[in-house]
Design goal:
Shape: globular
CATH architecture of the largest domain: 3-Layer(aba) Sandwich
Helix content: 25-40%
CATH class of the largest domain: Alpha Beta
Strand order of the largest sheet: 6-5-4-7-8-11-10
Distance between the termini: 35 Å
Oligomer: single chain
Largest sheet: 7 strands, mixed
Length: 401
């Protein structure tokens, strides 16, 4: 294949999670057993160090309409609020009218926080359902895939462009990056919020590998992409959301970018720890295989002891774990979810039914927490259940959650 970042053809297989269904395709009962399966493999580029999938499920299939909503989880909304306040206080101080473009704006949760601070907002969201929800909430949202053509149609330069949890999704990677450059004011700031591959490896969070995530960035590999389009990172920090997400601040390269001390420390840590080497990913792949054995031993022991195990949350990434482990309803009876859009649906591959949390009339003995990235919020919100003896088991215990 051709590297998504640098066009090299020198890749090696690093991680193979087998064939899996598209994990955001939650199924209706009549669809059970009809879902297509696709290879889920991460390859390593020897020329730029980028980790990436070698197979692309078309963006129209994955993002034309889906059931993920940003606003369901308080932790994520609070994180978005903090980002908006940071940008408002840090940049363009004194300007009366500030504008922000959010790429992959989902239900408008991030932009809602900017609106509260008086910013002019524009969202671009490919999913019909979520774009409609955002517009109905008063968040101007264009239902489209963002790329260079869409950027030109907006005919506007923005103070800030935000991409939260979307920059690793991009099938049209270079067209999107070029569009960002063209929509960004000369003094503008592009904020990339992305799952940090170094932390994914450290946390054993292999379930964050799925078909929607085409690329797995570290700061060095993100630099490689941005430099091709005249953009450069000038600052970055690691935020706790999603078990460890990098918040990178980017601007036009020709402004004479000076890297912050904390960015330089992060880059040095990647180099020192070999974060962008094939060996690191091959070792990660071996650890994933052992992780599977350990988790299946735990679940089988619970079943043999007569305990009822339910999944807590029905996150997209949870389906990577369920399918790679080969888990079905014999080990986990149902997935308990707050998102009403998943009512009455079934997880792809495992066919475990999704039930709505507020409608429960009984309790399990164990919650196997698939939404582990919101660990702190889950434990705080469920103190009473823990007091009643329900065990919350986190297959992934992140440093930051």
């Amino acid at each position: 294949m051709i590297c998504r970042v640098c066009d090299s053809t020198r890749q090696d297989l690093a991680i193979d999670l087998g064939k899996q269904p598209w994990c955001n395709h939650f199924l209706k009962e009549e669809e059970l057993g009809t879902e297509p399966y696709y290879p889920l493999r991460v390859v390593y580029c020897h020329d730029c160090g980028a980790a990436q999938l070698d197979y692309t499920v078309k963006k129209e299939i994955m993002f034309g309409d889906h059931t993920y909503l940003s606003g369901v989880t308080k932790s994520l909304s609070d994180h978005f609020s903090n980002i908006a306040m940071e940008l408002d206080k840090r940049f363009f101080i004194g300007e009366k009218s500030k504008s922000v473009l959010d790429i992959g704006s989902n239900d408008g949760t991030q932009l809602n926080h900017f609106q509260g601070l008086g910013w002019t907002t524009q969202g671009v969201e490919s999913s019909k359902t979520t774009a409609r929800i955002a517009n109905e909430a008063g968040i101007p949202t264009l239902n489209a895939f963002f790329n260079r053509e869409t950027a030109a149609s907006l005919n506007q330069k923005f103070h800030v462009i935000n991409a939260a949890g979307v920059f690793f999704h991009l099938e049209e990677l270079h067209s999107v990056t070029a569009g960002i450059r063209e929509c960004l004011r000369k003094d503008g700031v592009f904020v990339v919020q992305f799952l940090y591959m170094k932390r994914i490896v450290e946390n054993m969070a292999f379930d964050q590998i799925y078909h929607e995530h085409l690329l797995y960035y570290n700061l060095r590999t993100l630099q490689q992409l941005l430099s091709r389009h005249g953009l450069a990172i000038f600052d970055a920090y690691l935020a706790p959301i999603h078990g460890g997400s990098m918040i990178a601040f980017v601007t036009h390269q020709d402004r004479g970018v000076v890297e912050s001390d904390r960015l330089q420390r992060l880059l040095s840590a990647e180099d020192k720890e070999g974060s962008n080497t094939l060996d690191t990913y091959l070792q990660f792949a071996d650890r994933i295989k052992q992780f599977k054995i350990q988790n299946l031993q735990y679940l089988n022991a619970a079943r043999q002891a007569g305990k009822r195990v339910w999944g807590f949350g029905a996150p997209v990434k949870g389906n990577t774990m369920l399918n790679f482990f080969g888990i079905s309803r014999t080990l986990i009876e149902c997935l308990v979810e707050r998102n009403e859009l998943r009512r009455g649906l079934y997880a792809p591959g495992s066919h475990i039914p999704v039930v709505i949390e507020r409608e429960l009339t009984t309790l399990p003995d164990i919650y196997y927490v698939l939404a582990w990235n919101f660990k702190s919020e889950i434990l705080e919100r469920n103190k009473s259940l823990i007091g009643q003896g329900v065990d919350f088991f986190f297959p992934v215990n992140p440093r930051d959650a």
